[in-house]
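pls ignore typos typing on phone
pyrrole-2-carboxylate + seq
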Amino acid sequence: MQRFSALRLLGHGLTGHKHWRQSWRHPEPKREYDVVIVGGGGHGLATAYYLAREHGMTNIAVVEKGWIGGGNTGRNTTIVRSNYLWDEAAHLYEKSLKLWEGLSHELNFNVMFSQRGVMNLAHSLQDVRDAERRANANVLNGIDSEILTPEQIRQKVPLISISPTARYPVLGATFQPRGGVARHDAITWGYARAADALGVDIIQNCEVTGVLKESGHVVGVETTRGVIRARKVGVVAAGHSSVIAQMAGLRLPIESHPLQAFVSEPCKPALDTVVMSNAVHAYISQSDKGEFVVGAGIDGYNGYSQSGGYNVIEGAVAAIVELFPTLSRIRLMRQWGGIVDVAPDACPIIGLTPLKGLYINCGWGTGGFKSTPGSGWVLAHTIAHNRPHELNLPFTLERFSSGALIDEHGAAGVAH
Ligand code: FAD
Ligand code: PYC
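k done
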């Protein structure tokens, strides 16, 4: 079997990949669909997949202005966990984590989900108390969560400095063993291939430029490839959600900010878990290729440039070098940024909108990669049944008028 694959690979190389079977089609947009999903990131593709798979709706298009996965899905640092404080968020993220656990099998595509554990450091007495509160809340919700002492941290992460004289000494941590990292491209390709196989049209290089309304109902979108009518339109455009909502005359409580990350040159395996610190605005893991993957807090200003300010990188580097002094001599290879959609309570907005036929899924801020499967699953339910699933009922737009906010700033991976 392996020899056959190797021969096939060689054959593809020798023929200039001419006979390589495409993983999904590249159809021309039809004039009309039952559902159009705006945004071909992981969330949009997952929504289309679950609409087809769970709800039997297959006359669906995913329209993407660039290439699928070219937004935050392809720019994030792939940390997956479900250790959120409040019941509502914990249930939603845990649903997602459970889907992750079966995703390679479900999609028949290796999404490289590696449950190597996620550690969140505490650097002050208040941090330690918050960590204990969150770990206890997690356990009450059936989510795996442990509290670690500095010595236990050092045993798991020998590279870390637990010196009490550090500027931000490591006083403890929470640890979620089932958390970990995955492969960002793989989840895009896995959902795209599976959705396509169920009949979903994935239309790349197709920018939505307007939202069509008739008698107050949304009935389609204007795009750079013509008008596409739809009975239902789902906006899943991350950092550009408010831009699209504005096309429909809707104002969202979302701010768009750059969020940056960078990787080092590849090194031998030295770190087999994920370490995060909300207090020093930095986190780190080691990729399967050996690169140290490091991220920062958001750039403080609003913007749509996918680059970000150098001072934020400097701050993250300083924090990582203080925590991991031995890393001070490795070289950085690449830096990049994405545009994250931040809601005032650091929680997503998923549900119906005041406009009939328009559905929204945004506000995942710095933490939506982990929720890709769960987010698609609940939005698909919401679109199919025209009402939220109980898991996303607390996350509708109405919470900003009712005041029922779910403040998850403390559990956000990085400050935002
Ligand atoms: P995207 O992948 O951004 O998809 C939205 C798509 O909409 C884009 O492809 C875009 O091109 C398209 N679009 C926009 N406007 C239009 C238009 N007019 N017409 C058509 N298409 C349009 N989350 C975690 O859980 N863990 C992490 O470790 C993590 N690290 C991060 C690190 C960085 C540097 C960044 C930037 C983000 C990180 N995140 C992380 C957040 C996470 O990446 C996002 O929340 C998540 O990927 C959002 O997925 P999405 O599918 O909604 O968005
Ligand atoms: O939400 O876990 C997270 C995260 C890590 C880095 C950015 N976001």
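Residues 77, 79, 81, 283, 295, 366-367, 413-414 surround pyrrole-2-carboxylate (ligand 2) (CB under 6 Å). The mean pLDDT is 96. more later
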